[in-house]
Every structure is written in C-alpha cells, then in structure tokens.
Amino acid sequence: MSHPSPPHQPTQIVFGMPTPAEVVAGTALELRSQPVPPPGWTPPWTREEDEEEEEELELPTEPMTVNMGPSHPAMHGTVRIVLTVEGETVRAADVQVGYLHRCFEKEAEAATWTQIFPYTDRLNYVSPLLNNVGYALAVEKLLGITDRIPERAQYIRVIVGEMSRITDHLTCLGASAAEVGALTVFFWMIKAREWLWELIEELTGARLTNSYVRIGGVAADLTPDFAPRLRDLIRRVRQTLGEVESLLVKNRIFRDRMDGVACFSPQEAVAWGWTGPCLRSTGVPYDVRKDHPYLVYDRFDFDVPVGSRGDNYDRFAVRMEEMRQSMRILEQAIEQIPPGPVQIDDPRISLPPKREVYNTIEGMINHFKLIVDGIKVPAGEVYSYTEGGNGELGFYIVSDGTGRPYKCRVRPPSFILMQSLHKLIVGGGIADVIPTFGMINMIGGECDR
Prior knowledge:
Elements: H1 48-57, E1 64-68, E2 80-86, E3 89-96, H2 104-108, H3 117-121, H4 128-143, H5 151-179, H6 183-204, E4 213-214, E5 217-218, H7 226-248, H8 252-258, H9 266-271, H10 276-281, H11 288-291, H12 312-336, H13 354-359, H14 361-372, E6 380-387, E7 392-399, E8 405-411, H15 413-418, H16 421-425, H17 430-440, H18 444-447
Antiparallel strand pairs: 1-2, 2-3, 4-5, 6-7, 7-8
Helix pairs in contact: 4-5, 5-6, 5-12, 5-17, 6-7, 7-12
C-alpha cells in the first residue's frame, strides 16, 4: 500500500535517524523546539492494516502479578515493585523500598559531630561530597559560624560539589542509556566520570567515600596543579557530552523509548514534593543554588535548565544541560578563588596542627578532647538545605549541648521521588518501568537511610 508524501520535509521529525552528513543542531533541550509533522500525516514506517490484523489475532488476557525486584538486575538490589500487568500494560504498581537498612539517623546518635561525615558519604554514594557539604552547613548554622568560614574553603566546597554533581549525572544517564540498549554511551560517560574521580582522589585521598569536608572548612587545600588539570578535564568532558548527544538525541530508538513516557505535570510534581532535575524537567525552575544561595553561589553566572513535558526525555535533557552549567560554575570558581586558610581558626572546632599535637601539651589535650568528646554544639535545632544531585538535600539536626547529636534527620531527594514512581509507571508498558526508574535516579543509600 502506498502512502502520501508529507507536505513538509521529513528531516524535521525529531524522531528521525540522522544521515551521515547531519550534525546535531543544538543541545538535547534545544531539539525540543524543532518542527514536527503536521496533523494527519502518517509516517511511512507504520501500517494501520497491520495493527488491525494484530489486534484481531490477540487472545484475551487476564491481570497477572509480576515481582520486579528486589533481586532484579535493574532494581539495584534494594527495591521491589509488585506489578499488576494486563498483557504488556502496567495496571497497578506497589513500590516497596527499605531493603538496604542503612540506619544513618540512628547511627548518628552514637557518633560525634565530626564522626558523622563518613556516614554522609554513604547516603548518595555517587556524589558524596555534596552530602559532606550539606551536613557541614547544617552544623555550622547551629553553631552560628556560617559567616566565619574562610572564603577559600567556601570556594573549594563549591568546586568539589559541582564535580560531584557532574559525576552523579554521568552515572545516572550512562546507566539509563545502557538499560535501553545504548551500551556505548555508558562506557563513554563512565570514562568521563573516572577522569573526575581520579582528580578528586588526589585531593581527598579517596575516589568514592571521601570524608573531605570538615565543620569549619575542608580537610586540605587544593593540590598545586589542581586548576590546570580541572580545566583540561572540563574540556574533555564537554567533548564527551557532545559525542553522547550526537549518538542519542536524534536516534529514533532512544527517542521512542524516552519521548512522552512517564509524563508528570508541574502541578503534580509540586504536589508530590519533587525537587532537583526531575522537578525542573516539568518546567518549574526551582534550584536551591539560585532561589536560596548558600556558600558563594550568588557570585556565579549560570542558568537553570528546564523541560517542557516532564517526561523521561526531559529528565535526560535537563541533566545533560546541568552538567554544562556545573562546568561553567567550575571555570568561574577557579578564576575567582582567593588565597587564604581552608579551616576556621577556632580551637573549639578545628583540630590543631599535627606539629602542635606532637610537641605541645596544649595541642595534645585539645586534639584529645575534640576527638573523644566531640565539638560542643549549643543546644537547639536547625534545618539546612542544599541542592544535591537529585534535588533538595536537607539536614534537620537537634543538639542537647553535648558532643553528639540528639537527632540527625536527613531529607533525601530520592525517597521523595520514589513515592510517586507508581504514578509514573501505571498505564505504561513493562519495558517503560526500567528507563523511568533510571530517570528518577533512586540511590539506595539515601532512600533507605
């Protein structure tokens, strides 16, 4: 059966595969604005008569319960989704979290304020430095020393935090691309993540669980060649992102799996407490760094990318653009960072230098008291929030005046997003569960805290 030619050039279709001569006209978000075919035109790769024949041959189906997880390869080993399916369509979903049993908040009650930093590393373990920064800001707010943190330490916190944000997004998008068949993209993005982790390792001494930030500053200054190496990494990561976009944004298979899948409206997103890239994918431009600036974020020029439909593709595209904005912040931070100390000069908060610990009785006693008894945080309660990799990362801490917190409650963005996952997957296909779960970017360490 022949089909009429479209009245416009089919190269305008966003879903089309690029020809060898084509180059990507813009970023993933910009391609949302490309023209689409007019109503009534049928793509040549669809045949209505074939679909009618298939419907006639289909046998009636009955609802069936399917367990996806907690040992399913796509469930990270920590999530169970009980699906009620009718054929390939999901009719109901019961999302069950809590399999990891982190016990972060209970463990924090038995640790000093400083000893909690390694626990924060294991919340979102793909961007641990952002957790370090968020927790330190909460304790400093309760101590009343926010304005006394050295400027250089604040810049360093921004630098390591934005590097961690990039590694978080690289992991999310790389793994999600692999789950829809684009394994090459996974290797490219993990390679770029490894470049950043190697530099972070030289600075902090660890690739993943860094424990680098301290109450009152950071553990150590930047390495001598940190700035030129970071500039070189930014150039290489930008090139990798361009290669990823050239492979995916006009790829018909990828777009068919992502476009229009798991849509969420701005009203629904706000009602369910969404924040971060998922909220911004619906068109709501809320970013803690812009709306409630902390550290020195008010000194940087960067944009807040937003989507238009709140579907899986928008969540992919927003994260892609956010990595570019993070690199803009990094370039400005490297240029602006001033000299100076990286730790507050207060013996009640900061550990004394090793030479004093080993050679003076005052230094040894000070070190002993801070390690054994902990920093004496005044009695009170405070809530502090920052922009984590997946959204608003909040810490609500309560002090009874001792060296250990009475309560340390964390608001994990992943947990808030997971509570609405059932609304995203009901009505879609079984195959859509995996990319939708990937774009939520649930991290077991903070979800099951």
